[in-house]
Amino acid sequence: MGRKRTKSGKIRLAEVAELAGVSPITASRFFRNPEALSVAKRTRVESAARELGYVPNLAARALASQRTEVIGVLIPSLTNNVFSDVLRGIYDASEGSRYSIQLSNTRYSILQEEKLLRLFLAQKPAGLIVTGIDQTAESRAMLEAADCPIVQIMEIGPSPVDMMIGFSHYDAARAAITHLFAQGHRRIGFVGARMDPRVQRRLDGYVSAMKDAGLFEQRLVVTTATPTSVTLGGALFADLLAREPDIDAVFCANDDLALGVLFECRRREIAVPEQIAIVGFNDLEFMASAVPTLTSVRTNRYEMGNTAATMLIEAIDGRRPEQPVLDLGFKVIERQSSSSRHQDNRLAASGGGAANKMVALPSSHD
Amino acid sequence: MGRKRTKSGKIRLAEVAELAGVSPITASRFFRNPEALSVAKRTRVESAARELGYVPNLAARALASQRTEVIGVLIPSLTNNVFSDVLRGIYDASEGSRYSIQLSNTRYSILQEEKLLRLFLAQKPAGLIVTGIDQTAESRAMLEAADCPIVQIMEIGPSPVDMMIGFSHYDAARAAITHLFAQGHRRIGFVGARMDPRVQRRLDGYVSAMKDAGLFEQRLVVTTATPTSVTLGGALFADLLAREPDIDAVFCANDDLALGVLFECRRREIAVPEQIAIVGFNDLEFMASAVPTLTSVRTNRYEMGNTAATMLIEAIDGRRPEQPVLDLGFKVIERQSSSSRHQDNRLAASGGGAANKMVALPSSHD
DNA sequence: AGGATCGTTGACAGCGCTACCAGCACAGAC
DNA sequence: GTCTGTGCTGGTAGCGCTGTCAACGATCCT
Question: Which of A35, A193, B140, B217 is the most exposed place for a label (fewest CB within 10 A)?
């Protein structure tokens, strides 16, 4: 290591080839398809490259080959914990592969998404990961015309552009409400923020489950376009309570809101779950640790990102998955905050994650 | 829009030049330095480019110009809330500039960092943002030899490679302990996880403050190399209590741990702050919303990322900042969890963020 | 033995853009 | 009128790599 380079620090493929005693094109092949070389040349090129500390010039490669080894990723937010898990999965899958990740943030704007898509596509990415299924018509057309594999993540729906991996937010919300019904709750409020398409579909699931039971009332729903936060959860819940003091449960569109609701209950000395049950969404780590432990709908975020990137890379390399649309499902993780069997959370054991009851469901469309 | 392209979707600069009736090189200049063109040609090229929907081929540009418009960013973790705020700042600053962000994750390994650095540098990035000041000697040498501006973020220390923006974790921890002393606490425990260099320096600050007061005992310190989590905060605190039941305060190396400690106190019916005070670090959003509200040391994470990227871009464009090392400082945000004036948190008003008392300090080295 | 096939290698010609330098017109100085 | 400088423009020559195709010897088949 630390071997000094020739002037201006650039070792070209030609130098490696010369040292190895092969032609540049043979050296080039070594880096792209080592199997194509004889063992002798392979080792010669390998040691020459190592000795010189050769690193390929990606710009030249991209120019010559008319394609890049960049996977474009479009997500709506960097702040949201949900996406950091997904991203981690994507980055983990990309490591070890020869592809690098180019990330951009749409800020929940499909117009911004369209603009970024245009930019990405112009650089001929090897593949693309986009969030959700609600693109503009123009974006949709660009994606369909793109000559690279594409994975839509976070949800599943009809007519994928190419590949798709996620779960049904609608079904997941219905499952959460069904769980609350099973625990004997009837007047169930909905608290939601940001109201992006996925949160909207959770709301739809809530509404349909409530309507099916003849329990839906518009007054039970409190939402805002404001980005989500714990504090906001408390505030929205306060609004809900002011409007409907007799609710017996709250379904929160995400876990931050649920934590805010829990704190607000504590502030108001409302017993959870005795007076009000709480169910969150995503099952972030802290849900199992709260007091009382908080029920949530577990979503496989890391796995979603990881599988999406893995599928994409396979597809780029010409091995299309036999299953282009993958439903990762969800699980209702029942904890103290919604358990009618729960008597005294104050004496509950530390951690609380030991005896989680899980209700696993693959999501399904209707 | 949606104008169709010529075959294979590629519009080259030459086509734009032809339509505009200028030479390719003139068209090229339009995109790099419009001022150098006469107004007439400028408008001609502009409308030609728009009409054809021209998007530059970045690979060709990079190859020809021997430099990229990529800013490399090396951070230790994608999961950590702290870094998602920093990243958001970086991405926000890069938007609107012509630079794009290339992100990589060192997973808290300086060896991995060195490897990534080598990779990044080989592609001649326009600039580099690296986390912290604890690089390997080899990394350090590479950074110093790099012919692009570099910003080290998250902390400040002696001998910056180039630019530096952050704050003193040591001083911030000392300030937190000083605050606890002022509230009358004496037996103050330390809870830390992951123990990366910055957490280590917070521990150092804690130790020095405690020693200065003649109160330090090794038994008050509980740490682990395990990545941080809320649950872990509870577990570490349980260890600490088992060892030292008579502590009257806990300083947590981050807010997740602090939340875990709060939940564990609730589980054990330990009154906060009456029996045990809690102070966290970073001041994540939920700290102001917890019950009781949680004291923390506010760090300017978004601003750190944003300013770092802004400074870097300025430096790339040849305008080096007059202030290459920037201390963003910190603030101890005093809340109920460590306030001796706090009597009954159960009746405290919603949100609790209204009357935060702030103790602002620029960090300083000694 | 002759032909076909395979595995391996190399020559050539760009990919689309920009660095460099030269050239031109025009203005001002002498 | 010539010279110099300035502002703008264009020609030439690559940047470092890979796609394509051709060539070669070795192997296999009939």
Answer: A35
Q: What is the mean pLDDT of chain B?
A: 89
Assess A89–B contact: CB distance below 8 Å, yes or no. no
Into how many domains does chain B fold?
Answer: 3
Residues B339 and B220 occupy one common structural domain: yes
Angle B134-B138-B141 from CA coordinates, rounded to 5°: 90
Note the pLDDT of residue A341. 63
Shared-domain flag, residues B355 and B269: yes
* Residue A293 domain flag: yes
A276, A265 contact by CB (below 8 A)? yes
d(CA A188, CA A252): 10
Q: What is the pLDDT of residue A335?
A: 97
pLDDT in tens, B149-205: 999 999 999 999 999 999 999 999 999 999 999 999 999 999 999 999 999 999 999
Asked if residue B316 has pLDDT above 70, the reply is yes
For residue B233, being part of any structural domain is answered with yes
At B356, the pLDDT band (50, 70, 90 cuts) reads very low
Cβ contact A136 with chain C strand, < 7 A = no
B286 min Cα distance to partner chain A (Å): 5
Residue numbers of B between 213 and 252 with CB closer than 8 Å to A: 229-231, 233-235, 238
B260 touches chain A (CB under 8 A): yes
**Lowest mean per-residue pLDDT among A360-364, B102-106, B313-317:** A360-364
The answer to whether B78 contacts chain A (CB < 8 Å) is yes
Tell me which residue has tokens 């502009």.
B46
pLDDT for residue A363 = 53
Are B60 and A55 an interchain contact pair (Cβ–Cβ within 8 Å)?
A: no
Domain that includes residue B15, residue range? 7-56
Do A79 and B79 count as a contact with CB atoms less than 8 A apart?
no
Measured between alpha carbons, how far is residue B227 from residues B29, B108, B140, B188 in Å? 50, 10, 26, 23
A231 CA: distance to closest CA in chain B (Å): 5
> Which CATH number characterizes residue B288's domain?
3.40.50.2300
Q: What is the Cα–Cα distance from B312 to B295, expressed in whole angstroms?
A: 33
A152 and A192 both lie in a single domain: no
Distance in Å from C14's C1' to B9's CA comes to: 19
Shared domain check, A124 and A173: no
State whether the beta carbon of A23 lies below 7 angstroms from any atom of strand C: yes
Sites in chain A below the pLDDT cut of 50: 1-8, 342-360, 364-366
3-state secondary structure (DSSP) of residue A54:
coil
**Coarse DSSP helix, strand, coil percentages of chain B, rounded to the nearest 5 percent:** 45, 15, 35
B286-310: per-residue pLDDT in tens?
A: 999 999 999 999 999 999 999 999 9
> Does position B2 have pLDDT exceeding 60, yes or no?
no
Interchain CB distance below 8 Å, B235 and A264: no
CB burial of residue B81 (10 Å; 0-12, 13-18, 19+): buried
Distance, CA of A154 to chain centre: 5
Give contacts of B59 with chain A, Cβ < 8 Å: 58-60, 62-63, 68, 123
pLDDT at B97: 87
